[in-house]
Design a protein that fits this description.
Structural class: alpha+beta
Distance between the termini: 33 Å
Number of strands: 12
Radius of gyration: 18 Å
Number of helices: 3
Helix content: 10-25%
Order of helices and strands: EEEEEEEHEEHEEHE
Largest sheet: 8 strands, mixed
Shape: globular
């Protein structure tokens, strides 16, 4: 079952696909018959109008996962970028929070970044057509993570991001207080389930978002893209 939130009925939902071959964004639009039409896009633009958090139970490990939902408006259209606490979403959040009081029209691009023999989803971000400094540097983020190692071998088992996620959530809630413009009269509708991979349902229909062709100039050497690297 999906999650319930008061949003506009014509909202387009955007998710991050971490496909090893083609990291991108997936735009999902609800049809009249209740199904969703999905399409791969590269970038979205818009003005951030609100932030909220939802949860769902992951069928893979029977764990409750918290989802970050970013509400945006662009040229009369509404959409929500939603993701669990993944590397790309932390990157996006870190960039948004780095804008401070200058937060305006944001541009988010998801693309494949080569790291050795692997490709992982990376993010390029602009605010009012300008690149921004992120709120936390890599070292500051590392200070809020904990390495879980094998007590016998010392090998890394996993990295605990709980404190980092908590820090970002606290800052997002503060930002949402400034942005909050939600109307009590907005209708309740069901969001698409976070348990499903939207890339399975592709369509050639044009999504109701600002999709863009990626230009090499959008990914310049000075764009601090190293912050996208997992640590």
């Amino acid at each position: 079952m999906g999650i319930i939130e008061k949003i506009e009925s014509n909202t387009t939902f955007i998710k991050i696909s971490s496909s090893a071959k083609n990291p991108c964004l997936i735009a999902s639009k609800k049809n009249e018959n209740g199904t969703y039409t999905n399409k791969e896009i590269r970038a979205i633009t818009g003005t951030l109008t609100g932030i909220f958090f939802t949860k769902f139970n992951s069928p893979k490990n029977n764990e409750e996962i918290e989802v970050v939902n970013l509400k945006l408006q662009d040229e009369g259209e509404s959409f929500i970028l939603q993701s669990a606490r993944t590397f790309p979403m932390r990157n996006i959040v870190n960039s948004i929070l780095g804008c401070g009081d200058d937060l305006g029209k944001i541009w988010i691009l998801v693309y494949g970044k080569q790291n050795g023999d692997k490709i992982f989803p990376a993010v390029a971000f602009k605010n009012n057509d300008q690149r921004v400094d992120r709120l936390l540097s890599i070292d500051e983020q590392k200070a809020l993570t904990t390495a879980i190692t094998n007590p016998k071998t010392g090998e890394l088992i996993k990295t605990d991001y709980s404190d980092l996620n908590k820090k970002f959530k606290e800052e997002l809630l503060k930002l949402n207080e400034k942005l909050s413009q939600k109307s009590e009269s907005e209708p309740e509708i069901e969001l698409p389930s976070d348990e499903e991979d939207p890339i399975e349902n592709k369509s050639n229909s044009k999504p109701s978002v600002n999709s863009q062709i990626v230009d090499d100039s959008d990914i310049s050497d000075d764009s601090d893209i190293s912050d996208d690297l997992p640590f």
